Amino acid sequence: MMTETKQTAEILSLERKIKMHEARERIFNRINPEAKTAINLDRFLQATVNELGKMMEVDRCDVMILASEGGLRINYEYRADESIPSSIGLQIPFDLPQLRSIVDLKRPIAIDDTTASTLNPIVRLLAQTIKTRSLLVVPIALKTQVVGMFGFHHCHKQRHWTEEEIAFLQEVAQQIAVGYEYTKIYTEKEKEAEITKALLGIATDINTQTDFAKMASTVVDRSIDLLRADLGCLGLLDSTGKYLHFDTFRTAYGLGWNEVAINPLLITGNEIVREFFDKKRALKLDSPEQNQIAYYYLNKVFNGQSALVVPIIIKDKVLGCLAFVWLNARQPLTDYEVELAEGIANQLSIAVERDKLTAEVLRLRRELGDARAGEKLIGRSEKFVRCIEMALYVADNYTTVLLQGESGTGKELIADLIRFNSSRHDKPYVKINCGAIPESLLETELFGHEKGAFTDARARRIGKFEEASGGTLFLDEIGEMSLGAQVKLLRVLQDGEFTRVGGNEVIKADVRVIAATNSNLSEAIEKGRFRRDLYYRLNIYPITLPPLRERQDDIPLLALHFLEMYRKKSGKYISISRPRLCSCSRAIPGRGTSESWKMQ
């Protein structure tokens, strides 16, 4: 009987050795074919932990990398099944010199039971952090330098780690360290060349562009493409140094971002923002859960899941920043991305210093826009963002725009956005609500009247079209206009001329018309209340704004905006947690508009 048991153990041991060596061969086979080029480090390390985890029959196998900012970070992981807790992305903020004084990180660390009372408290805390009951750590070292560690874990039960297993894993780790170091050197050189090439391209853009605003847009567009970010913008300090104003909003799709999505940031008295200007270093924001600073920027400023903010420094003083935002969760930001963004910011700082006058004009224009923007365009739902993109696309054209949508969907705000981004932004901007003026007075309001044109017309009066000469006229509730006024409006749109009520003088009109309605103009045409030919003149570039019921994802953003608005008006601090906010927004039906929902 004893002989059979011994034979069985020997067979099991032999099978285990064969399994271990087969796993090793599979790992080495991944290194050798790619040795003449470059190993894809991410794929290679993930495949390695998968092979080793299965071979060692553990609950979890991972690679712990020594993070540049200190501590350990888990980037690659194998789990035997979904019930095993994941540790991917976990950052362990240990004091490495202190840890090295307790354990030798260059040698394997085998702990059969991490709950043992004899274990060093710091080591026990490390085990608790990574949720393991039985732990084996094998260093990935080249010569005397440890570049990372393999971790093997049993999460719920004890396991004895044999000397044979440890020796085998040391041999594998040594071979991997060679491949890792080679690939790291190759990748660093490759990335260095990529950064140099990218910065040379951006330098060319900066030197060939004479218009600062266009140059800034080009640089941000190229930066977004290089960093694979979703959004990007430029921030500039105001003349007082108290506020950071954001400008040059761009998206990954090459169209303008919602220009009023970010309020100016108050620097004085705001320790979180002040810290960025004092330290003069890039700000890596990997997730809202990273720390208090990341939570503030990602939830209250950028509304994203990750962000990278780099300072624009001139003569050792931070005068602004470049910010890049990722809307979905991603891997932690890399040193390569930070180095590239810092290089771009350095190039831009040279341009800002060289062209101070146009940079100042851009900054002042942004300040003026922020001062005038009492209401903000809030939202990132697909339909709403599409409306903003369409508005920005047509902004600098002479084209007549027809804004359609239910009351309170933001038609006037879109009109403001179009005018602010047009070449007529510094010319007159006149608004008139056609539905709020009696039919008998509407023609006079629009086109003016001559002295004696009717009873009480004691003097000549110019109308809204003359007031808006050279600028923009916003006609709200265009569907309520009388048929007589429609005829005159059609003449203005067709021929660019009109006459005052009671007069014969033909007046030329250089006015860009933006019309808006909440009524169905096609139905009004069928009923004879609206002219078909005028509809065709107005409907050259239609934008239909979605009601709130089609913008469910925007409700939390609107709620935060309204809370901030009421906080400023009342002077009282109003706070609500994000989970509570999301649950409340789901509980409120999507009927109505943002205006009506605000009152809830």
Task: Spell out the key features of this protein.
Beta-Lactamase, 19 strands, 4 domains, six-stranded antiparallel sheet, elongated, 600 residues, alpha+beta, 20 helices
- Helix percent reads 40-55%
Largest sheet entry: 6 strands, antiparallel
Known CATH architecture of the largest domain: 2-Layer Sandwich
Strand content: 15-25%
Blueprint of the fold:
Elements: H1 2-31, H2 41-56, E1 60-66, E2 72-79, E3 91-92, H3 96-102, E4 109-111, H4 121-129, E5 134-142, E6 145-154, H5 163-208, H6 212-227, E7 231-237, E8 243-251, E9 265-266, H7 271-279, E10 283-285, H8 292-301, E11 306-314, E12 317-326, H9 335-354, H10 356-372, H11 382-394, E13 401-404, H12 411-420, E14 429-433, H13 439-447, H14 464-467, E15 472-476, H15 483-495, E16 497-498, E17 507-508, E18 512-517, H16 521-526, H17 532-538, E19 541-544, H18 555-570, H19 578-587, H20 594-598
Parallel strand pairs: 13-18, 13-19, 14-15, 15-18
Antiparallel strand pairs: 1-2, 1-6, 2-3, 4-5, 5-6, 7-8, 7-12, 8-9, 10-11, 11-12, 16-17
Helix pairs in contact: 1-2, 1-5, 5-6, 5-9, 6-9, 11-12, 15-17, 18-19
Briefly summarize what is shown:
The protein has 600 residues and is of the alpha+beta class.
Task: Write up what this structure looks like.
This protein has 600 residues and is an alpha+beta fold. It has four domains: 17-186, GAF domain (Beta-Lactamase, 2-Layer Sandwich); 209-372, Beta-Lactamase (2-Layer Sandwich); 397-546, P-loop containing nucleotide triphosphate hydrolases (Rossmann fold); 553-598, no CATH class. 46% of the residues lie in helices and 18% in strands. It is built from 20 helices and 19 strands. It has helices at residues 2-31, 41-56, 96-102, 121-129, 163-208, 212-227, 271-279, 292-301, 335-354, 356-372, 382-394, 411-420, 439-447, 464-467, 483-495, 521-526, 532-538, 555-570, 578-587, 594-598; strands at residues 60-66, 72-79, 91-92, 109-111, 134-142, 145-154, 231-237, 243-251, 265-266, 283-285, 306-314, 317-326, 401-404, 429-433, 472-476, 497-498, 507-508, 512-517, 541-544. The strands form four sheets. Strands 3-2-1-6-5-4 form a six-stranded antiparallel sheet. A six-stranded antiparallel sheet has the order 9-8-7-12-11-10, sandwiched between helices. Strands 14-15-18-13-19 form a five-stranded parallel sheet. Helix 5 (163-208) packs antiparallel against helix 6. The radius of gyration is 33 Å and the shape is elongated. The chain starts with a helix and ends with a helix.
